[in-house]
Amino acid sequence: MLVTSEGALGDSSDILAYADERLPVERRLHPADAEARAQVVGLRSASTRSSGRRDGAGCTSRSSRNGRRSLVGERFSAADLAFAALAAPAISPLQHGTPVPQPEDMPDGMAAAVRRWREHPAGQYGLRLFREER
To answer: For 82, which of 18, 44, 45, 63 could close a Cys bridge (C-beta 3.0–4.6 Å)?
Structure first.
């Protein structure tokens, strides 16, 4: 929930839109181009819908396959933000913003899983987002 002088926002999409409108154009999380904007919204929505999948198939990084630094366009967008947020519990990034357990502090089975997820191209992409875009 975000409480502003204009009222309360409870939906993450509404909060993102509110914040985005207040950013300088060059830093906005939704591209001005209608086609790119539709891709960002679609990927953000798809990431949210598939976040419960254990195999990560619903949240694989398209950018890791095509060499781009972001999922849509040439810069960080709401699609990348959604991906990073949903990947965080699996990859336990050091740059999370709040302390999160690292593999050396986890039980063996969980530590092995986190290490596997970090090694996957999508995990590498998520870790890079936290390192470079946070």
So the answer is: 44
Q: Do 121 and 62 share a structural domain?
A: yes
In this structure, the answer to whether residues 57 and 118 fall within a common structural domain is: yes
Is the domain of 40 the same as that of 61?
yes
Residue 47's contacts (CB-CB under 8 Å, 6 or more residues apart) are 58, 59, 79, 82, 83, 86
pLDDT tens digits, residue range 40-53? 888 877 766 655 54
The DSSP-derived string for 49-60 is HTTT-TT-GGG-
> Token match 């050396």: residue?
104
Q: How far is CA 31 from CA 19, 23, 75, in A?
A: 14, 12, 9
The pLDDT assigned to 44 comes to 76
Neighbours of 10 (CB within 10 A): 9
Cβ neighbours around 84 below 10 Å, total: 23
Co-location of 10 and 60 in the same domain: no
For 37, the domain range is 31-133
Which residues, 6 or more positions from 46, have their beta carbon under 8 angstroms from its beta carbon? 58
Looking at the structure, tell me whether residues 36 and 99 fall in a common domain.
yes
